[in-house]
Amino acid sequence: MSSVEIAEILEKYDTCFAYIENLADIQNAKSNDEHNQSPLSATTLCQNKQCSNGDLLNLAFKGEILVSGTFSYLAPINQKALLKVAMDKPVDFRNLYASSHIHGFSTKKELREILIWYFGHLHIFRRKYDSPIWTPVTQLGSEYRNGALILNYIRRKTDLLTELDQITRKSGASGMLRDCLRGSVTCDTHKETNIRTIMAHISIVELNRQYSSSECF
User: How far, in Å, CA of 212 to CA of 147, rounded?
Assistant: First the structure.
């Protein structure tokens, strides 16, 4: 993504947030109570072309709004946010990411799961075969709690750790890597540098695997 595209996206977020602030100010002026603002309708915000569902979810991840309603499960809970939005507009999950953001896909019996880069973090989502609704398996907004789930998914559902074993064996670094991960005193600066180089190579192996939307949906 180019710097121009990033600037355009940020400007769009700012436009949406300013619009929410303006409507909330109008509402608060009528009720004279800014702390009990009734949630603004996502349907109304999107109909006026000032916001999209993606904009609203992004603002929720940034902690600037509190979302509630039917589709609030796609965003973290921000109890401290003063601005409130009811996610009452149907959300097409496919519009919330690019194909390059899908880093793992698996099927098991009646379930499909994906590992996806979602608003700045890796998350796992799941849906049933007979449902179009994707729900988060990992915790949104508490990403520090998701490490074990994501590692388990990578271990069971992708080839990343297989590639890791092959690369470290070929480089002769498997012992060094194990020592560093365990905090061994033998993990000196030179070894750390070598391992960083290896890990940089590993990061390309699986995360550059491209999944198409048609493959996952």
Answer: 25
